[in-house]
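Sample entry (413 residues):
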Amino acid sequence: MQWFHARHARAKPRYGQIMVGAMVALAMLSPGVAYADAGFDNASYQGCYDAQKAKESGASFSITKITEGTGYVNPSADCQLAANKAAGLRVGAYGYARPEYGNSPEAEADYFNAQSNAKGLVHAGVIPFLDWEPPASQRGDTQWAKRWLDRVASYWGTKPIIYMSASTISVGDWRAVAGADYGLWVAGYPRGYKGERLRDPGAPPYSVAPWPFAAAWQYSSSGHVPGVGTAVDVNWWYGDAGTWAKYANARVGTQPNPVSPAPTPAQGAPVGDTASIATAVIRGEYGNDPQRRVLLGNRYDEVMAVVNERLRGNSGGGGSGTYVVRPGDCLSAVFGGSWPMVARLNGISPPYVIHPGQRLATGHGGGGGRTVTVQRGDTLSGIAARLGIPQNRLNGYRSGNPSLIYVGEVLNY
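Predicted structure, serialized as tokens:
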């Protein structure tokens, strides 16, 4: 770098803050003993590098630049990510903010999400990061940063981490960002710009308040990382693979691209868990029939049963064109690239929180795109009678229980 959703029942949304905090505290008290390791971040000027040599020199992770603003993609990202994966490095991905260009945070976040998704990074054990180092006039715009973070969190189903210099912390009120459980990756170079290396730098010698701790520290931009370069950003992560997985909302040991890309017919059926392949099908990665049937091979019936269950209604769905939210779901994971349409159809607005048991109209086989807002004293049966429609046409109530609806909920039918 330059110097200066579901509200899950089975996982976060506070991404295991107590456990992560305890592990980080232990790492800061006893750096180098356990729960901490070294890595680097990279952008286009590193080009394609030898990540295996970096790993052999002590690197455990790499955080790769994906986008900048709304029109730039790191041209070396594909080979860098492939090298990191082959070497077994844990992977992070960052978008470089450009609020000074007049871009909205939502536009920049959507661009980052789309490019990251195209590279197989979303829901793959990868932590998203916001690189926040705009000009001084925008540096304190914490609302812009939080809106970007909120947008990315809703798409990835996990909380991004924000990167900034230690001096930037003091120029804005970051309490809302820290309070929303967006972690901090702080940058500061107490040894200046002379040669550095991958090492244990200890705890950051800066105040990071209002954050209780830093998740990571970029302690130099002039590190020598074999296989990568001699002027590389080097970082210390206050945690281990388990901590990384908690931030990424993933199982321990998850590697990027856990599901193989859509195969050619010669490669046979895809590997991976059925639910993940079904998500890829919904995103359009397997095309349409007859191509989809060929690409899915002997797993076609198995995968399409899950796809159809999601799009046409699952257990308790109550009719065609609905999906009942399960623990751990987020819109982007279930509906892929069509999640904004599903959100609009169901009256779901930022931060795009969904709840286990909530019934969502999918736009497939049911629902006319009409909505009704629950008023005080309303019941589901009463609303249906007033509208002159069957009760099971009403979707979107977050409790999943027809006898429990909330004032202000927007239902669709």
